[in-house]
From TrEMBL:
It comes from Fusicatenibacter faecihominis. It comes from the Bacteria. PANTHER family: ATP-BINDING CASSETTE SUB-FAMILY B MEMBER 10, MITOCHONDRIAL, ATP-DEPENDENT PERMEASE MDL1, MITOCHONDRIAL. SUPFAM superfamilies: ABC transporter transmembrane region, P-loop containing nucleoside triphosphate hydrolases. The chain crosses the membrane at residues 81-102, 154-176, 182-202. Gene3D superfamilies: ABC transporter type 1, transmembrane domain, P-loop containing nucleotide triphosphate hydrolases. It is found in: Cell membrane. This is ABC transporter ATP-binding protein/permease. Pfam families: ABC_membrane (PF00664), ABC_tran (PF00005).
Length: 597
């Protein structure tokens, strides 16, 4: 049997954000909010759940009837027993089908919520500012997208069935008991406050220990991701034991918090078992006494006992899954940390940019990192004309990469403004702007696709000729000749099969194929040998004049051909001019250049 989830799509992003902001700090309300728009599906699911559960309510009545008939045989006893048997069999036999139908409706809804939640997280992660990522380990985020959403999905599945069955069982058992004996009903009622008191007493410590455990898991996941990234460095320096010891500290943390959580969960489970088993046996003794006194029949003793066992069973299940419910609620909060995160990259999109020409102007820009103490840029002014190439030079840490990040819009100026084609950057649609620029970052980032996919990343309908043209520009023909499937050769994770220089040239090819109006090279030639550097240098020189080019390079010889070089010192431009002019001036640039020779 193959069923599919009704395709409503996974796009519930705005709805989920509203759900979180409206029901702040109420995970249960947030959970119910996920079912918005799924009322019909839930109603159908509940109908089938009632059918599925019905044998549990009917069989005790049938059992009691048969026992009563057997202990007091009379006219038509066999027929009456057979009639009860048929009724019971009818209810029992439909259970498999109704179970399937209930699962189909609820699992469909819950899996869709699971997918939509992950989709909402992915969308939000794509909106958060680059600064947010500098502050949080990626492993923690992975844990939220995968593990926390899985916990919420498990919670939804458990919540629906267990809570619904509990409520129905209590109602049916109470109604039938009340009908047969109000006195026994009162004994039944006494179990409820005991359950509530138990949950109330254990609620806080279980929640706290769940939170501590979840935080510990997130930290460890972050540390594992970091350890994996560091493996080549660790191995190269023979620091395996240092890393193992570092990881052991995290693992001990999980061990400790997990142990505390297990103790609390089990104490809770055991305490409730003792209380309810005692209740059950008391109930049996009580109804037994009533039967001895002739107030109720033997069949009714069995009926009450079965119902009471059911209610106790349901309460025990509820109590046993309570820690899981807490874990799920904690995950609802954890997902909220991302969905409610305020560090979203602003994108006002007030003024249309149209075709970018490439005029860039920094007007009195001040910049300070949110957690930084000093201004990296102070009263920074610079105008770059379309097609001009400008290189930034200066000592390490003077803010060259920061200027490029401001230009990409990763960082907002603390004061002052950046004009792009005379439009203040804060009023631009950043996606429209960034589609017309290209960046070759300091650290090359490749993914596990093919060479073709890595070069054309995100672009469609790019011909082989266009790809080959940029491959020639960056001098990658030699590499392609050696690749078994040419452009369609997979690169392995992060392009690990390539040399640093080859990776960097692919990164440059990715920038060039976009035919950008502004191109930004952040030390793009730093990992290249002299032969590759020459080829890249030619490609860079080729780009100069075609589009506005910004370059940061430590090797000052590589920026020789730039139209102007701006020497950055104390947060602003200390010197500006062509290579020859700055060398002739014998100022800061000249001195730095002389140090490199
Ligand atoms: N996220 C951050 N938070 C606080 N300070 C930062 C952050 N990133 C960078 N800085 C600081 O800002 C200053 C400028 O950094 P930037 O990377 O722009 O310098 P740079 O001139 O490109 O250096 P280099 O030539 O060594 O690459 C440095 O002192 C650095 O420590």
């Amino acid at each position: 049997m193959k069923e599919t989830i009704p395709e409503e799509g996974l796009e519930h992003f705005d709805e989920y954000l509203q759900n979180y902001s409206k029901n702040e700090n109420h995970p249960l309300k947030i959970l119910l909010g996920f079912y918005k728009g799924k009322k019909l599906q839930c109603a159908k699911g509940f109908f089938w759940l009632i059918c599925q559960r019905s044998p549990v309510w009917v069989t005790p009545i049938v059992t009691a009837n048969i026992i009563d008939i057997a202990t007091n045989p009379g006219k038509n006893s066999i027929q009456r027993i057979l009639f009860n048997l048929v009724i019971a069999l009818l209810f029992i036999s439909q259970n498999a089908f109704s179970n399937y139908m209930a699962t189909k409706h609820f699992s469909g809804a819950n899996r869709e919520i699971e997918g939509s939640l992950r989709n909402a997280l992915v969308r939000k992660l794509q909106q958060l500012s680059i600064m947010f990522y500098k502050e949080i380990q990626s492993g923690r985020l992975q844990s939220k997208v995968m593990r926390d959403v899985e916990n919420v999905q498990a919670l939804l599945n458990q919540m629906v069935r267990t809570l619904f069955f509990f409520i129905l069982d209590v109602i049916i058992a109470s109604a039938v008991t009340l009908y047969h004996s109000p006195l026994v009903f009162v004994v039944f009622l006494a179990a409820i406050p005991v359950a509530v008191a138990g949950i109330y007493y254990f609620k806080k410590p279980i929640s706290e220990r769940n939170r501590a455990f979840r935080t510990e898991m997130e930290s460890t996941q972050g540390a594992v991701a970091e350890m994996l990234e560091m493996i080549p460095v660790t191995r190269a320096h023979g620091l395996q034991e240092v890393e193992i010891n570092k990881m052991q500290r995290y693992l001990k943390g999980i061990m400790h918090q997990g142990f505390q959580l297990d103790l609390m969960n089990n104490l809770f489970g055991a305490a409730s078992w003792v209380v309810f088993q005692s209740f059950q046996i008391l109930c049996l003794a009580f109804t037994g006494c009533l039967a001895v006194k002739g107030k109720i029949g033997v069949g009714e003793v069995v009926l009450f006992q079965t119902y009471f066992t059911q209610i106790v069973g349901q309460i025990s299940t509820l109590i046993n899954i309570y820690p899981d419910l807490c874990k799920g609620m904690e995950s609802v909060r954890s997902i909220g940390d991302i969905l409610e995160e305020k560090q979203v990259e602003p994108n006002h999109s007030i003024v249309p940019l149209g075709d970018l020409k490439g005029n860039v102007r920094f007007c009195n820009v001040d910049f300070k990192y949110p957690d930084g103490e000093r201004y990296i840029l102070k009263d920074f002014n610079l105008e770059v004309k379309p097609g001009e190439s400008i290189a930034f030079a200066g000592e390490s840490g003077t803010g060259k990469s920061t200027i490029l990040n401001l230009l990409i819009g990763f960082l907002p100026p603390t004061d002052g403004k950046i004009l792009i084609d005379r439009i203040n950057m804060v009023n631009l649609d950043m996606n429209e702007y960034r589609k017309q620029i290209a960046v070759v970052p300091q650290n090359t980032i490749l993914f596990s696709g093919t060479i073709r996919e890595n070069i054309t990343y995100g672009l469609e309908n790019i011909s082989d000729d266009e790809i080959w043209s940029v491959i020639h520009e960056v001098g990658l023909e030699d590499l392609l000749d050696k690749m078994p499937d040419g452009l369609d050769t997979p690169l392995g994770e992060h392009g690990d099969r390539l040399s640093g220089g080859q990776k960097q040239r692919i990164s440059i090819a990715r920038a060039l194929i976009r035919k950008p109006k502004i191109i930004i090279f952040d030390e793009a030639t730093s990992a290249l040998d002299s032969a590759s550097e020459k080829k890249v240098q030619e490609a860079t020189d080729h780009m100069m004049g075609k589009c506005t080019t910004f370059i940061v390079a430590h090797r000052l010889s590589t920026i020789r051909k730039a139209d102007r070089i701006a020497f950055i010192k104390d947060g602003s431009v200390a010197e500006i001019g062509s290579y020859e002019e700055l060398m002739a001036k014998k100022g800061y640039f000249y001195r730095l250049k002389s140090l490199q020779e």
